[in-house]
Design goal:
The protein is of the alpha/beta class and 240 residues long. The chain has 9 helices and 9 strands. The N terminus is likely disordered.
Length: 240
């Protein structure tokens, strides 16, 4: 059997053509690009990407995690509800990756919202998602927010759109409205934004795969090839 070095598999997406992503303002000067420390071992980065003194940015309490925490592959996804490429990833790629890898115990996947600062009402959309999470309806609300993306980005009454999406997602609308009015989840949303900035995330979607940053909405086939190779490489390494 041909053996695939783990490092070779890890950099497969990094060698791909530039992927589509929504880019916001430049990250703060001097911010290091480092691993998201959520039980993810710090990788050996290619020399041009290696920071002199890596920061440790803890994302373990942020966002929404799915899968087995002990899975061999750890992914942190930074996404923005207002980003068209994030919508594309969600609509065309995510469900297959979830069923094929996350549900099968191969990947532990954490999704963290990052407001890149490009889209109207994106912060409010993040709050809407978190208010839905409080009712255990985050997946349904996430799908609804992406589906209604043009509506809430292009209106002066985004609150009405969010309320409609909440109703369609099966939420208790009165409780949702109270959560939005009190802005209860905002500290957590702000903390996620700050973590992304510290990591140097400049666009969405950005994925940290075992600590390696990959920016852009890659086609499903490329993700599948990448994860299949990485799973094989890790299995081979474990057998040695």
């Amino acid at each position: 059997m041909a053996r695939i070095p783990v490092r070779t598999a890890l950099v497969a997406l990094l060698a791909a053509p530039l992927l589509a992503a929504c880019s916001g303002a430049e990250a703060e000067s001097g911010a290091a690009l480092t691993t998201a420390q959520a039980g993810i071992p710090a990788p050996v980065l290619a020399e041009p990407l290696r920071p002199a003194e890596p920061q440790v940015v803890d994302v373990s309490g942020l966002g929404h995690a799915q899968g087995d925490p002990e899975a061999p592959i750890q992914v942190v996804e930074f996404t923005d509800f207002g980003c068209g490429y994030c919508k594309k990833f969600h609509d065309e790629t995510w469900s297959t990756l979830r069923s094929k890898y996350v549900a099968e115990g191969q990947i532990f996947w954490r999704t963290v919202h990052f407001n890149v600062g490009m889209f109207p009402n994106a912060q409010e959309a993040a709050l809407a998602g978190e208010c839905a999470f409080a009712q255990d309806r985050w997946d349904a609300m996430r799908a609804g927010l992406f589906a209604a993306q043009r509506d809430w980005k292009g209106t002066g009454d985004a609150a009405a759109v969010f309320q409609r999406v909440a109703r369609e997602a099966g939420l208790d609308v009165a409780a949702f409205d109270a959560c939005m009015s009190a802005r209860e989840p905002e500290p957590g949303v702000d903390q996620a934004n700050e973590a992304a900035r510290k990591l140097g995330v400049r666009g969405t979607p950005t994925f940290y795969v075992d600590g390696y940053p990959v920016q852009g909405a890659a086609p499903l086939e490329l993700f599948e090839e990448f994860f299949d190779r990485l799973i094989e490489a890790k299995a081979q390494a474990g057998a040695d």
